[in-house]
């Protein structure tokens, strides 16, 4: 039996292989796209579930804090209870009650420059 290999056979073979590769890669691409879309949908659902759990925990924590404050509120002084239980005051009077630290002692030229910007660094 004799094989015939000429230009026409080679071209037809390459054409058949090219068409088969194009169709095969198209099928693989659509399959990969469907997997990616399903994965994205699953991740989105998981994220929404986690967000719902986080929001529920936050609501539960807020409710527990409110209930705890309601139990403690009668024990608080009237001035704190009147402010709504805000224990971290931002008033200037509260800041004035805090002790101030003394300036650093010693011959530090950086401190001297800050205190006397036009000076030579010595006091």
SSE layout:
Blueprint: H1 7-72, H2 78-82, H3 92-97, H4 109-115
In short:
The protein is mainly alpha-helical and 123 residues long. It is 68% helix and 0% strand.
The shape is: rod-shaped
DSSP E strands, number = 0
Helix content: 55-70%
Structural class of the secondary elements? mainly alpha
Mean pLDDT: 78
| C-alpha end-to-end distance | 111 Å
Radius of gyration: 39 Å
Task: Report on the biggest sheet.
Answer: none
Q: What share of residues are in beta strands?
A: under 5%
Question: Given the structure, what is the number of helices?
Answer: 4
Query: Could you give the order of the helices and strands?
Result: HHHH
* Stretches with pLDDT under 50, minimum 5 residues: 87-98
Keyphrases for this structure?
rod-shaped, mainly alpha, 123 residues, 4 helices
Verbal overview:
The protein has 123 residues and is mainly α. 68% of the residues lie in helices and 0% in strands. The protein contains four helices and no strands. It has helices spanning 7-72, 78-82, 92-97, 109-115. The longest helix has 66 residues, at 7-72. It is rod-shaped. The termini are far apart. The model is unreliable at 87-98 (pLDDT under 50).
């Amino acid at each position: 039996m004799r094989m015939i290999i000429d230009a026409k056979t080679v071209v037809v073979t390459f054409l058949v292989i090219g068409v088969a590769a194009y169709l095969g890669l198209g099928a693989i691409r659509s399959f990969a796209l469907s997997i990616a879309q399903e994965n994205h949908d699953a991740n989105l659902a998981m994220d929404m579930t986690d967000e719902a759990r986080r929001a529920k925990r936050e609501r539960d924590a807020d409710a527990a804090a409110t209930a705890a404050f309601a139990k403690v509120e009668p024990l608080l002084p009237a001035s704190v209870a009147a402010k709504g239980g805000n224990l971290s005051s931002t008033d200037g009077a509260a800041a004035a009650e805090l002790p101030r630290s003394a300036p650093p002692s010693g011959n530090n030229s950086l401190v001297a420059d800050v205190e006397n910007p036009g000076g030579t660094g010595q006091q």
